[in-house]
Amino acid sequence: MELFWILLFSSACPLTLGQGVYARANAQIVHSGAACNVKDDNISERIYTIKEGDTLVLQCIVKGHPRPQIRWTKTAGSASDKFQETSIYNETLRIEGILRVQGGRYYCKADNGVGVADIKSIRVDVQYLDTPVLTVHQTISDVRGSYYQEKTVFLRCTVNSNPPARFIWKRGNMRIEQSKDNGVDIYEPLYTQGETKVLKLKNLRPKDFADYTCQVSVRNVCSIEDKSVTFRLTNATTPPMIRLSVNDSVVVDPGQDVFLTCEITAGFPPPKVTWSRYPGPLPLSAQVRGQTLILRAVTPTDAGFYNCTAVNNVGNPARKNVNLIVRSKCLYLLPNDEGTDAMGNLTFQITPDSNKDSETIQMGRDLKLSCHADATPQDKVNYTWYKNGAPVFNSDSLILLRSDPDMAPGTSSLEIVDMKFRDLATYSCVANFPGSRVPELRVDVNISQNSVTPPVLSVPPGGQVVSVREGGNAELACLVVDGKPRPPILWSRVEKDVLMSAGKAVVETPDGRLRLKNVSRDMMGLYRCQTAPYNGLNIKRREAQIQLNVQYPPIVDPVFQDVRSRNYQMVTLRCLILRSNPPRLTDIRWFRNGDFIRMPMPDLKETPELKFKLEPASNGSYECRVSNSAGMSTCTFNVSAQPYNAEFYFDTPNPVRIQKGNNYSYNLQWTQKDPEATDRIIGYWVNVRKNKQSLLSKQIDLKGKEPEKGVLLSHTISDLRIPLSYEVRLAPITTYSTGDYISRIIQYSEPYTYPRPSDRSDVFDWTRQNHLTQNPKRSANTGPETDRSGTKEGYYMYIEASRPRVQGDKARLLSPLFNVTSVRGPKGSGRVPYCVSFYYHMKGKHIGTLNVLLRVRSIASVDSVVWMKSGHQGPDWKKAFFDISPSGPFQIVFEGIRGPSFEGDIAIDDVSITIGKCKQGNTVATAGKTVLIGGSRSLPLASWLTAGLASVLLLLHR
Asked: Which residues, at least 6 apart from 846, have a Cβ–Cβ distance to it below 8 Å?
């Protein structure tokens, strides 16, 4: 079983006046798994260190009543409080094989609806050490005035690590030390990614041609072993060089096979070749054989830049790029001048003389015809113009523009200057890819005085406003009723930055009809229709607007509501109408359990409301069905006198008690949610199950006492077998009904409280425990982690300051009665001195008081304080000892007094009482084994105790 290291514990916050045991959520983070260590930095931030690849386990321990819900979130920053969208609703966050990018701050948010939610965080620091990368760089430069060359080599070692790595350089097996070798420099360069150390070999010597090792270490943090890389430097060491078998750009047709070869021309050690593509990865069909990349039956999606990289860790990697272009064309449906479909692959524009603001063809004025093919590659498209089937060449009246600067890139234009009757003809634009198998594309445009007229846009009568029910289909019509040629219609939303339903800003329709399917209310609004500037006259756009009105059923509140009430009380149900289109309601009806409730017709302008007296027979499901012409919506109310669920209390201190026959009992505690909301609760059904089989079912009678909000109720379940766990189910009972069962698991744990000593003047008991029996939900920042010797098995006694304790509560622990009449005092003295010695632990900002009292028995017992400490005394165990000289039989009483709040646990350990005065540096007797009486005799600690303290036998026993 994994050791569960505790980061921090907490107790619920002090109760707010009037809310009983209800307490807001309080969370703390504990962790298990493979943590290297957990520490606090200078700003008291909790840091969890873990090795990359290990398992991260964080658990959020919560207190509060009702039991809080848990949500885990993460941010990567060091101070951000913004929660990410993704959350884990679980007490335990587990990450198998944690990665370095998963480091950061993790938040646990606990919320139970009482007060504000509690948020705790811990920073996870992932430790790692990558294999270093060693690269070699050379510089060769002429030295003026000499006839030799100086060659300097830089060995650069780079590694990614956390924490920062330490570097060691070796030549062969010998460590290189800069101070002992004038031919080397070791330094850390600036502006490098990752951690880098450079070994500089100055003016290469014969002994410098050797094996070099870069060893990196993080000093075994998280048991991360050192890593190293070795490079052999020779006089043949050279950087890589490559060349491609193709040009920088390759244009191919779809379906062709492509072979790209990257030839290595230089480099030692032999370089390794890799292929990549931008953007995106290599196609799934790509094959790499040696230095050749093979692409079978390419498609337009395979286009892109392909990169060949050769690396041998000498100098810079050699890279070559090739741009692969796969021919493709986008097709358009293009009407010709007669209104019939032509070969639809190109768009065209007819632009009248723009200098004259003309919208028609006029003799004596200029006219421009433009032709554009949307193709890849755009610059490879070749355009040819024809007039009445004959090729057009540049002349004084006809000007060809291969790429028109006034149009979109890749657009060819034919300008007709000072138009004459001879220019009235049929013009053809043909686009093709020279040498390609892709067929050529052609569009014909008839230019005559009657074939080109401006378009007239019109919305059919009654089409300015289109109404449709939500979920139905709608058609918006914006028609070109006149003009030649008739351009397509472009649709967009009038509202700024609102997209069309297809997710596009503009949608083209060839016939001017926008068809919308499955209309939703967010599609309601104004739509703009415009003539397209292509496939027709390139003039001022004609436009119109159409309103789409989406009708939907009323939006109501609440959609569902659980209503609880006492029987024979008046109940009012209201169904609010938040929005409705159309706003006028047509019907309001109420139903109970599906049956129509007959009642006067309600006012359709008022909020629907139903009032009635709740009776046992009228419990059930009520529906308010509200309708308009678009449909119906429903408010549903579950009306019942059934009591609310009980709320288990999970912070019961020490609920387990040992019974005879290897049995134990469990103190089950709970509160009742809103007990005043329904009929009086007279009892509870409790059911105990094991493996879904019922072992106990009984009714708990409250005997006339009504539950109060926030007040704990208790029931002891007996005869449970050690060490089994059980499922306990609980349901409240009223005179008329039984509530729903809630369920929880109760588990056996070794009890660490014992019966009260014989002194009845205190309020609560001291508790015996060790590290292994600590309550995992114990209060934070108070109490010891272990006994004073630091062992997990060693026991100690302490007082628990958490609820239900209040300020001033006392717990007393008594020693056995010592009869001093059997011991003689020193010569000349009538009283025998004793040394009382013990260790105490008083850590916490709410520490109260620890008193040690001497109780002397005579006719009447008298208590006197002989030692006292109050307030926080530090995080460690401290030793105390003092002398007493009792006048008769005596007992030592340890009295713990609870401070102002829950961070006030007080503990004691290793108590001894020895005859004689204390000596400086007094050593406590081995607690739990012997107590020295009279110096010559040792007695078991059990001989201290009265019968009433028999159960505290193990007070100091480990």
From this structure: 782, 801, 899, 900, 901, 902, 903, 904
DSSP assignment of 412-463 equals EEEEE-S--GGG-EEEEEEEE-TT-SSPPEEEEEEESTTT-EEEEEEPPTT-
CB 489 within 8 A of CB 651: no
- Separation in Å, CA 151 to CA 137, 138, 317, 552, 848: 11, 7, 20, 83, 78
Where are the extended beta strands (E) located within 815-947?
Answer: 834-842, 849-856, 862-870, 878-884, 890-897, 906-915, 931-933, 937-939
802: tokens are: 């958490």
Angstrom distances, CA of residue 932 to CA of 822, 855, 941, 954: 15, 19, 10, 17
Residue carrying the six token digits 């421009």:
368
pTM higher than the cut 0.85: no
Three-state secondary structure call for residue 69:
strand
Nearest to 529 by CA among 547, 541, 545: 545
For the cut 60, the answer to whether the pLDDT of residue 5 exceeds it is no
Token pair of 822, please? Answer: 């059997």
Residue 489 structure tokens: 């219609």
Is the confidence at residue 726, as pLDDT, over 90?
yes
The residue type of 468 is: V
Is residue 211 within 8 Å of residue 169, measured between CB atoms? no
Q: What's the pLDDT at 333? A: 31
Quick one: residue 620, left, alpha or beta (phi over 0 = left, psi -120 to 50 = alpha)?
A: left
Percent of the chain with pLDDT over 70: 85
Alpha carbon distance 913, 852 (integer Å): 13
Inter-CA distances, 636 with 148, 408, 419, 573, 639, Å: 97, 60, 77, 10, 9
CB 732 within 8 A of CB 739: yes
**Residue 602 above 50 pLDDT?**
yes
d(CA 167, CA 165): 6
Which residue in 649, 667, 660 sits closest to 748, CA to CA?
667
**Can you tell me the distance from the alpha carbon of 875 to that of 439, in angstroms, rounded to the nearest whole number?**
88
What is the total residue count of the chain?
958
**What are the helix (H) ranges across 117-179?**
none
Whether the pLDDT of residue 689 is over 90: the answer is: yes
Q: What is the C-alpha to C-alpha distance for residues 209 and 213, in angstroms, rounded to an integer?
A: 13
- Position 142 pLDDT exceeds 70: no
User: Shortest CA distance to 538 belongs to which of 405, 363, 367?
Assistant: 367
Say what the pLDDT of residue 48 is: 86
Q: Convert 908-944 into a string of H (helix), E (strand) and C (coil).
A: EEEEEEEECCCCCCCCCCCCCCCEEECCCEEECHHHH
What integer pLDDT is reported at residue 927 of this predicted model? Answer: 33
Q: Tell me the pLDDT of the chain averaged across its residues.
A: 83
